[in-house]
Amino acid sequence: MTKYGFPEGFLWGGATAANQLEGAYNEGGKGLSIFDMVTFVPKEERGNDIEMDVKSKAELETLLAGKGGDNFPKRRGIDFYHRYKEDIALFAEMGFKTFRMSISWPRIFPNGDDLVPNEEGLAFYDNVFDELAKYGIEPLVTLSHYEIPLNLVQKYNGWLDRRLVDFFVHYAETVFNRYKDKVKYWLTFNEINISTLSPYIGSGILIDEVENKEQAIYQALHHQFVGSARAVKACHEIISGAQIGCMLARMEVYPETCNPDDVLAALDEDQKNLFFTDVQVRGYYPSFMLSYFEENDIQIDMLPGDEELLLQHTVDYLSFSYYMSMVASGSPEKLKEKGNFFSGVKNPYLESSDWGWQIDPKGLRITLKKMYDRYQVPLFIVENGLGAYDKVEEDGSINDDYRISYMRAHIEQMKEAIKEGVDLIGYTSWGCIDLISAGTSEMSKRYGFIYVDQDDYGNGTLERTKKKSFDWYKKVIATNGQEL
């Protein structure tokens, strides 16, 4: 039967991450995470580029010694740690069916390799889940969202060391057992492919400390794939009826022209992006990636049983972030241009955000159709939104019509994809409350329906204010996407 709207029980909500939200980085027994070491760099000094890598032991030691600046925005977040009841009440007022959040690994195991978990950290998430349950909001929990304990970087150079698989699985089993009656939906690694762009944030690798950078990145990723499969296995064994998925930073790529060189370049980029979900959904390394490893002399060290583990413990659903599309060219000269966030070629048919991200609602529909065709598993959009400068008017209102327009256009395309047969189970808008930007550590890059009074330097009252989009999204949820 053709579906003409969002299915009954569709999971509308919002998405966040502990490191961008919680604050209280040195409270409740929490250890340092990788993002606690990322300083703020003003936009005028870095342009639109992301600024989040720590690359060497020397750089890390400088930061730990307090000589690398004093503005670490992800340490303060927006104080969700102390204000979660107030924030969850606002999410409930919007009608959220689900709230995507992450557990901070170092809040549970401060050093990452501890044997005994931190009870105060476990109790904090008990309280958060209980508060969500009070309003009937289903938690969607990411196990690892750029929150690798810093000690694992210092001692092991992150996921490059196979021992992290056991540390991660111990952490996953601990939270599965603790919250098995409170959390049904789980994700393993947030945007697992980000390691190819930021080895420090994605895998905890100090990349200047390794000889063959690409070899190190893909070896670390293999360890994460194994960790993910073992976490899927544990989740299914410990929590009856649980659903556990993977998560990809989706990069839809178009060829610049119908020149076969451009088409082939776009296909190559698409395959490299979908490699990660191929492993986690299909359960094996695709042939095109094995060919790439051979051509680039990359040797993946696998243990006996790894391939069987990947094949037997695939995810239940595929989740992804979608913010923009890219354009590929077969011309090396074209790729030197700076057209979009990751890509070198600008799409002349699309407008751009304040941060140079090209806005492409129809690209979301294309992505949904392509991914469902490829995998035939339920899909879940767990990040999508518009980072923009918001202005507080004299009367205190924030009229973010641009955000409403962005989201309306994307939700319309989601509806079309469902009509065309895509199995889409939910949508959590990124940064449903203003929080610290992952890539730039800015507060001024705002995504939320709720304004938080704080600037890039931590000044402000932290007061929460509803934006115009708050009531708009409330109506969207109440009508199950019929009134946009």
TrEMBL record:
Gene3D superfamilies: Glycosidases. GO terms for cellular component: cytosol. Keywords: Glycosidase, Hydrolase. It comes from the Bacteria. Coiled coil: none annotated. The active site is at E383. GO terms for molecular function: 6-phospho-beta-glucosidase activity. The keyword Lyase does not apply. The keyword rRNA processing does not apply. InterPro entries: GH, GH_1_N_CS, Glyco_hydro_1, Glyco_hydro_1_AS. Pfam families: Glyco_hydro_1. One of its GO terms (biological process) is carbohydrate catabolic process. Its EC number is 3.2.1.86. Belongs to the glycosyl hydrolase 1 family. This is 6-phospho-beta-glucosidase. The gene is ascB.
